[in-house]
């Protein structure tokens, strides 16, 4: 996406310092599986990032994404400033009012805490594992949806 400088998989919001994937999946760390998006606000807005977020995942199910269930899968936006919090809350209200989803949005809006980068094998997972069944049946449809809906925001090749 134009303006996105980096994307990292990781964990945030829990009590356990430097958790592993195994720790987080155990459900006792309090951490959530997250994606840290670094972007250039001169090129793309925080609101644009949130629009993608609310389009490619289900923000209406508590502690679940598809077949994956557990508190580490809850829908959360971690904000870095009061302005981001305000934009996130407004975007939730507007998205709910637009009735894009059949059910109400349950996404939490919380202050960012320490981000713990996930293990290397979680980085660029779809790119590195396109034939893995999770990627084929869960991730690929989300990527297609993103490319269709946000074609005008895709990064142009150099």
How do the helices and strands line up, and which of them pair or pack?
Layout: E1 4-12, H1 21-25, E2 32-39, H2 46-56, E3 64-65, E4 68-69, E5 76-79, H3 82-97, E6 108-111, E7 116-117, H4 125-128, H5 133-149
Parallel strand pairs: 5-6
Antiparallel strand pairs: 1-2, 1-7, 3-4
Helix pairs in contact: 2-3
How is this structure best described in words?
The chain has 158 residues and is of the alpha+beta class. The protein has helices at residues 21-25, 46-56, 82-97, 125-128, 133-149, and strands at 4-12, 32-39, 64-65, 68-69, 76-79, 108-111, 116-117. The chain has a three-stranded antiparallel beta sheet with strand order 2-1-7, with no helix packed on it. Strands 3-4 form a two-stranded antiparallel ribbon.
Name a few traits of the molecule.
alpha+beta, 158 residues, globular, two-stranded antiparallel ribbon, three-stranded antiparallel β-sheet, 5 helices, Peptide Methionine Sulfoxide Reductase, Chain A
Can you summarize the main beta sheet? 3 strands, antiparallel
CA-atom Rg in angstroms = 16 Å
Order of helices and strands: EHEHEEEHEEHH
Biggest sheet, spatial arrangement of strands: 2-1-7
Question: Could you name the CATH homologous superfamily?
Answer: Peptide methionine sulphoxide reductase MsrA
**Dominant shape:** globular
Structurally, how many domains make up the residues? Answer: 1
The count of DSSP E runs of length 2 or more, i.e. the number of strands, is 7
Kindly state the percentage of residues in helix: 25-40%
- Tell me, rounded to a whole number, the average pLDDT: 91
CATH topology: Peptide Methionine Sulfoxide Reductase, Chain A
Strand residue content: 15-25%
Low-confidence stretches: none
Measured distance between first and last alpha carbons = 13 Å
Under CATH at level 1, the class stands as: Alpha Beta
What is the CATH architecture assignment? 2-Layer Sandwich
Estimated structural class: alpha+beta
Total count of helical runs of at least 4 residues:
5
């Amino acid at each position: 996406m134009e303006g996105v400088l980096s994307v990292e998989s990781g964990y945030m919001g829990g009590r356990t310092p430097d958790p592993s994937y195994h720790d987080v999946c155990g459900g006792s760390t309090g951490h959530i599986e997250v994606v840290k998006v670094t972007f250039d606000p001169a090129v793309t807005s925080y609101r644009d990032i949130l629009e993608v977020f609310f389009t490619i995942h289900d923000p209406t199910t508590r502690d679940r994404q598809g077949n994956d269930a557990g508190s580490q899968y809850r829908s959360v936006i971690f904000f870095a400033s009061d302005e981001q919090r305000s934009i996130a809350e407004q975007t939730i209200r507007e998205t709910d009012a637009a009735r894009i989803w059949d059910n109400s949005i349950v996404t939490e809006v919380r202050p960012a805490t320490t981000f713990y980068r996930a293990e290397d094998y979680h980085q660029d997972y779809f790119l590195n594992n396109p034939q893995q069944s999770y990627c084929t049946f869960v991730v690929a449809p989300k990527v297609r949806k993103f490319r269709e809906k946000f074609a005008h925001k895709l990064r142009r090749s150099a």
